[in-house]
Design goal:
The chain is of the alpha+beta class. A four-stranded mixed β-sheet has the order 2-1-3-4. Helix 1 packs antiparallel against helix 8 and helix 4 runs parallel beside helix 6. The longest helix has 35 residues. It binds glutathione (GSH).
Length: 211
């Protein structure tokens, strides 16, 4: 199996963390979006990362890829079968991808990607505005959802992978989680990012990004 995409994308890191947690191995090709590579273009109709090639089967979108892998390797998966838990896992995956990402990418793109990778000026006012106005409701909501060690049930699920990887990009963008205001979320972030499935990836990214 080939997984295309740089891990600094929270969507790519979600799939990498999933694979590591499940003990699945990929040939990882760390390409950027829209790269001019025939195999990548065949796997990613929109040119977005991540994308997967498994033999002659191709698939784009982090959630689609995780669902595919979960169906292919069902034992000890990270998407629960119990209806209420499964519904919540899909909800948090969607919340991370469609609500957290737009708020976080303004920060990560303008404070990190543009200056550090593309050597261009970012729109720092837009990043500051997102940190001040868009991020606090996200943190407050997540804080209110955390009762135990994980977002859903008593074990790691796709919900945690989706949410924590959006938090990692916020962290790369200089947005920490204030443990006085959000004690459960701050502890959750520290706990999840210390898992071997993702800790090494984050350390490598910090080096790559000069953070
Ligand atoms: N819903 C997609 C989102 C993928 C996505 O937006 N990836 C970004 C990188 S973080 C990308 O490739 N953007 C390039 C573009 O939109 O052209 C997923 O879950 O994989």
């Amino acid at each position: 199996m080939i997984l295309f995409g740089l891990s600094v994308s929270p969507f790519v890191r979600k799939v990498l963390m999933y694979a590591n947690e499940r003990g699945l191995s990929f040939d990882h090709k760390p390409v950027g979006p829209q790269v001019d590579d025939a195999a990548f273009k065949a796997a990613s109709p929109l040119g977005k990362i991540p994308a997967l090639q498994d033999g002659d089967y191709t698939l784009a979108d982090s959630s689609a890829i995780v669902h595919y892998l979960e169906a292919k390797y069902p034992a000890n998966g990270l998407i629960p079968a119990e209806p209420k838990a499964r519904g919540k896992v899909v909800w948090f995956d969607e919340y991370a991808d469609t609500v957290m990402f737009p708020a976080g990418t303004i920060i990560f793109f303008n404070r990190v990607v543009l200056p550090k990778i593309r050597k261009a000026n970012g729109d720092l006012a837009a990043a500051d505005d997102s940190e001040k106005n868009k991020v606090p409701p996200l943190f407050a909501y997540l804080e209110s959802c955390l009762g135990g060690d994980y977002l859903v049930g008593n074990s790691l699920t796709l919900a945690d992978l989706s949410v924590v990887n959006q938090l990692v990009n916020l962290h790369h963008g200089g947005v920490g989680i204030d443990s006085a205001k959000y004690p459960k979320l701050a502890a959750y972030y520290a706990r999840l990012t210390s898992r071997p499935s993702v800790a090494g990836i984050i350390a490598g990214e910090k080096q790559f990004l000069g953070l």
